[in-house]
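Checked the freezer inventory, then went back to the computational side. Two predictions to log before the end of the day. The first one is the construct we discussed on Monday; recording sequence and tokens without edits.
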Amino acid sequence: MRLLSLAKAAWAAEELHLRRLVRSRGMQAGYAAAAVIFLVMMLVMLHLAAFAALEPGRGPVVAAMWVAAGDLVLLALLAWMASRAGHDPVADEAVRLRQEAVRQIGDQAARAMVLAPLLRSQNAKKGLLGAAVTAVVVGLLSRR
């Protein structure tokens, strides 16, 4: 029964890890998309500023340049947020939990392999010899 609960724990940890990973990548994609939007808006404003510069009055140019500067700041902020690799401690813990559960599943299976010949044998000597041989084989295989 413990083997089954360890398998369930490993499955749940892997599911949590993947869910958090997809969420993190989705948020990065959203920030990148917002940065692209602000980049386009900045280019539009720079075009409007250049057009306004051709006009005799200088008022609209200064205003358009300030808006473009604000867009540039937002672009830089969103691009920085999208580019940083998010370190998610919950996902890291889920990976560690999954690895520990899988290791314990292997340990439980190895114990079952050692005890199975002992329990099946009619003769105690054969059972102990079979258990010893199985333990040696399992020990050799687990070191690979």
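The second is the one RB wanted added to the comparison set:
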Amino acid sequence: MPNLTILRASMFGLIMTGTAHADTVLTDLSAAGDINVLLHRTAATVCMVAAGADEVAEKEDLALARTRFNTLLDQLADGRLSEETEAVAAAWRDQDVALSMILAGDDPAAYADTITNGRPGLEFAALALMDAASHRYAQLEEVAMNDVVTFDVAGRQEIYVQKMKHLACAAMADDAAVDVFADLTDAVGLYDRSLTALRDGVPAMGIDAPASYAVQQALAAAAFDWQGVKSVLATIAADGVATADDLSTLRIKSTALAAKMSDVVDMYLAPADVKGVPQVASLEVAAQ
């Protein structure tokens, strides 16, 4: 499923800029953002398939994510980001073959080394692509900071959710490393502080709480869903083990949370509702 949040941000940016050049830059930025989210989504989903949690649903999600990833690579291949895109494609090839075999019915364990060993290089290449797309985006004088912030916050929130889902799944293994639980605890804290910064503001860092009542209510709804996700993750981290029921519950609750955050971003896209949205740098500091 496409990252509708980022696509909506791109559409809004296009309306604001109104130029063919801006159209291309925003489309590339959207695609680069999607690629970074999807690579974490595929990693989390493969782990869920291997764990046997909601296997049919997870395989369906994996197939959609893989198709979308390949479509985005094709979209970017002949553009101004062709060099960065080729680096991502090169790091993705072995992963793509492994995913196709898993979807065909092979045991995911047979491809564990391919996926695990190839992941750091893929993440590095995807971030380089994102940096290049963001640099071009920043050159558009017509672009308001609102667009940049909305895109970055939406992308980071989605990545955080996928990372937490992946870590929770990794915790199900009998030989799960202690680092998995420590990383999961850190990820929960990071998401928690980021959401709190969006809701309440951090005046000392120039982050104001949103003035719009609609945004406040939407963030409150997201925070409510986050508590459900956080409870499952906190239990896994505290117990030092994840069960199939934990993963099944997490899948449902994390999907609901992502939808709520998507609603929030929709509201941030309206000029009257962007006041009080923190700059990316401020959000990162607040989340430390």
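For RB: The chain has a mean pLDDT of 78. The first helix runs from residue 4 to 17. Let me know if you want it refolded.
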